[in-house]
Amino acid sequence: MDPRKFAMTVPVAPSMTAPSRFRILSLDGGGVKGAYSAAVLKEIEEATGKRIVDSFDLVAGTSTGGIIALGLALGRTAADLLAFYQTRGGLIFPSTGVGQRWWSTLRRLIKPKFGAEALDSAFAEVFGDRTLGEASCRLLIPSYDAVAGDVHVFKTRHHERVLQDHKRRAAEVARATSAAPTYLPLFASSWGQRFLDGGVWANCPSAIAVLEATAVLGVPLDAIQLLSIGTTTEAFSIDDRAAGGGFMQYGLSIVDLLQQAQVVGSWAQTRLLLRDRAYRISSVVRPNRFALDDARHIGSLVALGLRDGRHHALKVKEIFLDAPAPTFAPVP
Predict the structure, then answer these.
(1) Of 1, 33, 91, 303, which has the fewest beta carbons less than 10 angstroms from its beta carbon?
(2) DSSP 6-23
(3) What 3-state DSSP class applies to 204?
(4) Under a CB-based contact definition with an 8 Å cutoff, are residues 282 and 28 in contact?
């Protein structure tokens, strides 16, 4: 991985002076569990009477969080996005009988569990031909270049060195960030690159969002406030029988383990950097309660999200929604 990807030596964007306050919204990956995140945001928007995206200077989203981030920045309400999960979730990740689920699990050993046709259709309906450059706020959407073997972060034109991403269709960016290994095929873009889910390295994008603000945009660390929305939280542990085991012990759950471990690490780094200026919402659930491809439990995810949205709405309003963010003006 080229460390220059993180722009540690990139000059501060010439169009932006160092602000006294800079608010970041970070949205985790998690497949169909994005219904929880969308429900949290819907409840906050309805309780406060504010479009949440209007109060943030930067929105970072990975995988399902990237889909929500794109939708919000392109004018969709959180209620619209929740309806997307409720109506499309079961089509993208269809429920099957016990026998078919066993077959799907075996199928994942040699090919993706699901096709991408339903996902492509859903993104075409939600985003049409709109581009990343039409976003109303700065966006940061992680993905992974499957050919170069390197990280890739799609960005709005908030820095003069971002030359191409703003021209990309939002539907393609959404596919690039959400092509979860073993679940969905990798995404072959119209411009020739092939991508895997950004969750393989940034399932919780909060830490890289802080890095973008400080190293690229020149925002002082003590000016940053960050709101992180998860897709529910559960402990992943290995019992004594499986400790030190091989593939048969870990199985296909290794994908979930690695993504969850990244969330824990990223949030710990974010809290270390921002301390009490970092705020996270993610309901703790028992292990294996939800799966990123199991649409049968969307109703329960929504119920949890609405509850947590109600619980946190006033605090979120007090910390983050007290004033609109300055209007985003892309670098010409």
Answers:
(1) 1
(2) GTTTPPPPTT-PPPS-EE
(3) coil
(4) yes
**Based on the number of CB atoms within 10 Å of its own CB, is 106 exposed (0-12), middle (13-18) or buried (19 or more)?**
exposed
Count of H-run helices and E-run strands, the chain: 11, 8
Query: For strand 150-155 and strand 138-145, is the pairing parallel, antiparallel, or unpaired?
Result: antiparallel
204-226 residues labelled b (16+ CB within 10 A) or e (exposed): bbbbbbbbbbbbbbbbeeebbbb
Distance CA 240, CA 217 (A): 47
Residue type present at position 106: L
The helix or strand, by DSSP H or E, that contains position 179, with its residue range, turns out to be none
**Type of residue numbered 160:** E
Task: Compute the distance between CA of residue 269 and CA of residue 118 in angstroms, rounded to an integer.
Answer: 36
pLDDT > 50? residue 9: no
Report yes or no on whether pTM surpasses 0.85.
yes
Query: For 115, phi and psi rounded to 5 degrees?
Result: -85, 170
Q: Read off the pLDDT of each residue in 184-209 and give the average, rounded to a whole number.
A: 96
Question: By the 8 A CB rule, do 62 and 198 touch?
Answer: yes
The tens digit of pLDDT for each residue in 126-162 reads 999 999 999 999 999 999 999 999 999 999 999 998 8
For the chain, what is the mean pLDDT? 88
Taking CA atoms, 136 is separated from 72, 73, 308, in Å, by: 9, 5, 26
Q: For residues 101, 30, 170 and 112, what is the CA-based torsion angle, rounded to 10 degrees? A: -30
Nearest to 4 by CA among 163, 168, 211: 211
d(Cα 93, Cα 293) in Å, to the nearest integer?
Answer: 6
Residue 23 forms beta bridges with which residues?
225
Task: Name the nearest CA neighbour of 64 among 43, 94, 88, 95.
Answer: 88
